[in-house]
Amino acid sequence: MFSFYLFPLVIILCVETITSKRISRNAVLFILLAVLLAVTLSLLPEGFFTWLWDKLNVFATVFLGIFVEAVPYLLLGTFASGLVEVFMDRDAMSRWVSNRPGAAAISGAFMGMVFPVCECGVVPLTRRLFKKGLPLSAGISFLLAAPVLNPIVIISTASAFGWGEMLLWRFVISLVIAVTVGLVFSAQGEAAEVLRPVMAGDDHDHIHAEAGDSVREKIRKALLITVDEFFDMGRYLVLGSMLAAGLQTFVSQSALLAIGSGPVLSVLVMLLLAVILSICSTVDSFVALGFTGVFSFGSVLSFLVFGPMVDIKSVMMYLQVFKRRAVFYIVGIPFLMSLAAGLVFNYFVK
User: Fold this and answer.
1) Region 88-106: what's the mean pLDDT?
2) In terms of Cα–Cα distance, which of 125, 144, 317, 132 is closest to 226?
3) Residue 74: is its pLDDT beyond 50?
4) What single DSSP character describes residue 43?
5) Contact by Cβ (8 Å): 228, 170
6) Contact predicate 152/116, CB 8 Å
7) Cα angle: 68, vertex 71, 72; to 5 degrees
């Protein structure tokens, strides 16, 4: 086997020796790399390439599943972002949302019931709302609450679990976490303190609505903004979907499920699965339903609360809008509160 790979290299070496008085450095380097590759291939177990091909097929399938599922909602969010830019001004934003931190955080969370966007579409929309003067606490609350509190997710959760405890507690705990994180960020004052520099400065977009624009012209500009936003955020959706697909393909989920039988480990495993699976919040209830016979009520609830707020693709998008320290809090506080909620239900409620 090894000689089969080495034979062409010997031929190359002989040709180089005949045609040149001395072998060039690049030729030597190429031959050494080729020999190393040949040795590596000879040491691989039989059937490796068949296994790798199967894994790549699984990776492609999972990636396309995550990406195709998320794209419509990213498109919806970017379109909403375009409409906000051309139809809403700062005066309207100040009339709708209070500048008081507590009231702003609560109203921002309930804005999720107005905008039916999931965790993919909410990021570009929140970015645009910040540029329109949305208070920081309201924006953070909206960012975390909208993927759960929007009408589509409420209906899908009710379809999977019924109009009962799971729906109620998912709604309540998500609302509490979103408002809490919003209040934490209200201590920062202005949004510019946590946004990346490109976001904190003046509006750099070259597409703006003018006072004399007709409705048709405004819609045209909203569509242009939609395209810009879609390709701006879409590349990070692709990268996040690839990472999620890689983890699902090469990390054994059966091993994770095997260690998730205890009241603490089960919650931790479900929180980890929420990040790894990166399922859109509009359909995650049906996935969670499959875990109800194996995992406790608290662990499934933590999955449903944390997953829409934090997964791989959403974190990739967060990093394009917020400074790293802000992303740490946006991810860390919901994780700890979701963990605490799951433990409370496992030990004291269910």
Assistant:
1) 74
2) 125
3) yes
4) H
5) no
6) yes
7) 105
Model confidence, pTM = 0.72
Chain-centroid distance, C-alpha 123: 9
Q: Which residue has the tokens 């946006």?
A: 330
Residue 331 corresponds to which tokens in the numbers above? 């991810």
Reference 122, options 144, 138, 101, 152; nearest CA is: 144
- pLDDT 10s digits, 311-347: 888 898 899 889 999 999 999 999 999 999 999 999 9
Cα separation, 113 vs 218, in Å, equals 25
Pair of tokens at residue 138: 């309201």
What gap in Å lies between CA 26 and CA 12, rounded to an integer? 13
Helix (H, G, I), strand (E, B) or coil at 49: helix
Q: Answer yes or no: are the C-beta atoms of 41 and 9 closer than 8 Å.
A: no
Q: What is the DSSP letter of 195?
A: B
Q: What is the mean pLDDT of the chain?
A: 80
Q: Which of 89-93, 96-100, 132-136, 267-271 has the highest mean pLDDT?
A: 267-271
d(CA 93, CA 138): 11
* H or E element that contains 333: helix 324-344
Q: Residue 267's closest CA among 337, 177, 207, 165? A: 337
Of the candidates 137, 156, 145, 154, which has an alpha carbon nearest to the alpha carbon of residue 111?
145
Residue 8 reports pLDDT greater than 70: no
Give, as one character, the DSSP assignment of residue 212: T
- Distances from the Cα of 161 to the Cα of 31, 152, 247, 263, 289, angstroms: 62, 14, 28, 21, 7
- The whole-angstrom separation of Cα 232 and Cα 343 is 39
Could you tell me the sign of the dihedral formed by the alpha carbons of 278, 153, 178, 123, in that order? Answer: positive
* 129-148 pLDDT per residue, tens: 888 788 899 999 999 998 89
**Both structure tokens of 203:** 């509006």
* Cα-based distances in Å from 207 to 64, 116, 125, 215: 32, 25, 16, 15
